[in-house]
Structures are given as structure tokens and as C-alpha cells.
Design a protein that fits this description.
The protein is mainly β. It folds into three domains: 184 residues, Sandwich (Immunoglobulin-like); 96 residues, Immunoglobulin-like, CATH 2.60.40; 89 residues, Immunoglobulin-like, CATH 2.60.40. 4% of the residues lie in helices and 45% in strands. It contains two helices and 29 strands. Strands 12-13-14-18-19-17-16-15 form an eight-stranded antiparallel barrel. The protein is globular, with a radius of gyration of 26 Å.
Length: 380
């Protein structure tokens, strides 16, 4: 038996499961006369074993530091058996889920990462695992999490007498290898930047308000912050320090000059900063004057206003949820700045809808003074 390997360019989330198996009717060539379909008994044709690397906790901070995203994490070893037809080309995908029933699974196409002990090793980029972790659990979650994995193998098999090949999923259309297998992901901790007011809180990490990284490589941060005095920015537990640059829209790496309070004056601001190059960052500050709730309860029309406390870090109000369903927080009566989340204990910008199951009037309270942003609902 001879195995032909296919090298997949990178590991990407599958929009449709292994579309490479779909045939173009225009490629069928001459009419086939009684072709002999390849027969592969059950899940035979290959054996699949979990890679030794995936049997240990996967430290994503370490993996990401080794040649960046080009470094791969080995997930499965796939070896052909005698039942696999001559010349078969394999493609392997993996489902990754936080639930044992795979109801929240995300599917990834794996990359051929070479051979080991007679098997082909299939791997995934650590950046995809980090992205999955941040999308599945809180971006502030630093503890390791257990995930469920399983694998599908497609074989493209030449068929004598026609110009095309037959593509089959080994084991059948719903068969998964290593169903129920687990891996442990240790995330790269999401970096926080604190805003300190010189001479006031002294850049104290506990009392400073914070921005949170908005992407996996920590080149973009955002957050809502009460600004009343000039401030600087520095990384908690890191070396990055940012001060005012040559323009109000620019920050200087290593700078010590305080960033000025915007012309709109003291208040709550949505702050977004982005790395420009090794010496400068950009900054945009939008004053937040109103926060309200909008959703199915008011047909997504207008906001049920909340009232802030003295430093605008806690907003509260009674909201009549006349209909159950989805809803969100939004700022300044628009969608440019909004908060949502599947759980009120973990809200994020542009997050999914919050939900309310029972109609009624609730006291809704939004807390912006600590991370993660969170809210409570108390029925009256």
C-alpha cells in the first residue's frame, strides 16, 4: 500500500467540512462504465493516535514565543493500514469543543507536519488555539482549561477508468476518530495595561483602571476609563510604558509625559490604542455620556437609560423587559461602542447578546471599574 500525502497551506477554520472532497461535474471526463468503487471497511484505512505533545498541557505562551505563529502544535498521528487503497491522499480535520457532547465545537483543518514512526503527524498553529481559548472562555481567564477533541479523515482515492478520484470520509459520514479525547490548554495570559495618574495613585495596579488586549498579539487595547487628570499607560507585569506623543493622537513608547485630558473635559472615555511601530502607538478617546439597554424588549428601538455613580464606573436603572430574548448595553445611543456577553459576569465589546428568560421589571447594574466588565439583574 502506498500513501500519498497532501500538504495543506496553514491551519484554518473550516467554513464547510473539507470542501476538497466536492467534485466539479465538469471534471468528470468520459462516461464511466461500471467503475469499481474503493471499499474501505468501517473505519479501517488508517489508525489515529493522539500525538504525545497533545497528551501534555499545551503551554500556548511558550508555543507562541517559538518562531511566532509558524510553530505548530502536534495533535494526531495518522498511519495507513493495508485497507487504504493505493495512491490515497489524506486530509485531516479536528473538532475542538468545551462541552463533552461537542455541541459548541469548532472545526479546524490540520496541517501535515512531517513523519514520525511510520505515521504522518498533523498539527495546528498555536495562534488558532489561543484564539479559540479567548473566544470560548473569558479573555481574563488565566487558568488552564480542558477541551474535547476528535478527528475526521478524508481520503481522495484514484478510480481506474475515469479522470477523477473518489473522495470518502473514512468510517462513514459521521465517524470521528478518538471521540471523547481531551487536551489541556494553558493560555497566554491576556495582557492588561493600567492607566495611572502621576502623583495620585502612583501607577498602582490595584487602584488603576485598565485597558485589555483586544487581540492575540497584544498590539491593540481598549477599555472604558474615567479620566479626570493627565495620565500615562504601562503594562501590568511587563515593560511597555506609553506617554504622550507629538500629537494628541500619538503615544510614545517609553514616554513619561502625561497624556492630556481631552477637550471634552473629565468624564468616562472609551479608549482604544494600537501599535503603529516599535516607537509609537495611536490613541483614540471617545467620551461616553450615556449608557442604556436595548433589545427584544423594546424591539431594538431606543435605549432604556441607566444612571451613573460619581465616577461613572457603575451604571444602574430599572428596565421593563416586556419581552424575553436578547439585549445589550450600548453607549452614546449608537452601536460603535456596545457590550454584550453570554454571561453577565463576563461582558466584552461587540460581544454576543445578553439574554433574559422571564419578562418583568429588573434593576440592571453595570460595573465598569474592574475587569471583566460585568452586570447584575435583580427582578423587582
Amino acid at each position: 500500500m502506498k500513501l500519498t500525502k497532501i500538504f495543506l497551506m496553514g491551519a484554518a477554520v473550516l467554513g464547510a467540512s473539507l470542501a476538497s472532497c466536492q467534485q466539479d461535474p465538469g471534471d468528470l471526463g468520459k462516461v464511466q462504465v461500471n467503475p469499481q468503487e474503493p471499499v474501505i471497511e468501517g473505519a479501517n484505512g488508517v489508525t489515529v493516535n493522539q500525538a504525545s505533545e497533545a497528551q501534555q498541557p499545551i503551554d500556548l505562551a511558550t508555543k507562541l514565543s517559538i518562531n511566532g505563529a509558524a510553530f505548530m502544535v502536534n495533535m494526531a498521528n495518522v498511519a495507513p493500514t493495508e485497507e487504504l487503497p493505493e495512491g490515497a491522499v489524506l486530509a485531516v480535520s479536528m473538532e475542538l469543543a468545551s462541552k463533552a457532547d461537542y455541541s459548541d465545537a469548532v472545526e479546524y483543518e490540520l496541517t501535515d507536519n512531517g513523519d514520525a514512526d511510520g505515521a504522518t503527524v498533523y498539527a495546528i498553529a498555536p495562534s488558532l488555539l489561543q484564539e479559540y481559548f479567548l473566544n470560548t472562555w473569558s479573555k481574563y481567564q488565566a487558568s488552564a482549561q480542558t477541551c474535547y477533541v476528535r478527528f475526521a479523515v478524508q481520503a481522495t482515492i484514484p478510480v481506474d477508468g475515469i479522470a477523477t478520484a473518489t473522495c470518502v470520509r473514512l468510517g462513514g459520514p459521521n465517524y470521528w476518530y478518538l471521540d471523547g479525547t481531551t487536551i489541556t490548554l494553558v493560555p497566554k495570559v491576556q495582557a492588561h495595561l493600567m492607566l495611572g495618574t502621576p502623583g495620585a495613585n502612583g501607577q498602582d495596579a490595584a487602584s488603576s483602571m485598565k485597558l485589555v488586549s483586544a487581540n492575540a498579539d497584544n498590539t491593540s487595547y481598549n477599555g472604558v476609563v474615567y479620566v479626570a487628570n493627565p495620565f500615562t499607560i504601562e503594562e501590568i507585569g511587563g515593560d511597555l510604558k506609553l506617554g504622550a506623543g507629538s500629537t494628541p493622537e500619538e503615544l510614545t513608547v517609553g514616554g513619561t509625559s502625561p497624556i492630556a485630558v481631552p477637550a471634552d473635559g473629565a468624564g468616562l472615555y472609551y479608549i482604544s490604542i494600537n501599535k503603529t511601530d516599535d516607537t509609537t502607538w495611536s490613541i483614540a478617546m471617545t467620551r461616553v455620556d450615556t449608557i442604556g439597554c436595548i433589545g427584544d424588549f423594546n424591539s431594538w428601538g431606543g435605549d432604556a437609560a441607566l444612571t451613573p455613580n460619581a465616577d461613572f464606573t457603575v451604571w444602574s436603572g430599572d428596565v421593563d423587559f416586556a419581552a424575553a430574548g436578547g439585549w445589550k448595553f450600548r453607549m452614546n445611543g449608537g452601536w460603535d461602542i456596545n457590550l454584550g456577553g453570554e454571561q453577565l459576569s463576563d461582558l466584552s465589546f461587540n460581544g454576543p447578546n445578553c439574554t433574559v428568560a422571564e419578562t418583568g421589571t429588573y434593576t440592571v447594574t453595570l460595573y465598569l471599574g474592574s475587569l471583566p466588565y460585568h452586570a447584575t439583574m435583580v427582578k423587582k
